Amino acid sequence: MSAPRRVRITSPQTRIALARRHRPAQHLLPPTIQGPDDRDTTDAARALFADQRRQAARTLALLGAVLFGLSGLLAAAPALSRVTLAGVPLSWLLLMGGSYPVLLAIAVRHVRRAERLERASAPGTGTGTGTERAP
């Protein structure tokens, strides 16, 4: 007598996730917007998406430079740990009091630039390419 056949049971979400693995990464592209000029609208959306990805890469590079630069500064200048202000080592003050405002400024700058790119690519404003340089 043979053993009963095993049945694999998965949830619908698991089946969807497993099925997505074999398809190209279409979820990384903006959806097609239906309108009178479908091709132009889709191309503009993809151009905006590419501009925002470039902006995100620049922001990540700046973030890495700040974090690794501060770590490198503290490693290169161990004397900063011996200097104290109000009983707190200067290296701690740099890490806690100096890095967080810089990170906040980087985040605010990134959001403003991403919104500026969206406004520049909106229909009826500017050239619509979204490639204008943000200050």
From TrEMBL:
**Alphabetized UniProt keyword annotations:** Membrane, Transmembrane, Transmembrane helix
Membrane-spanning intervals of the chain: 60-80, 92-111
Q: What protein is this chain from? A: DUF485 domain-containing protein
Native organism: Streptomyces sedi
The organism's taxonomic lineage, starting at the top: Bacteria, Bacillati, Actinomycetota, Actinomycetes, Kitasatosporales
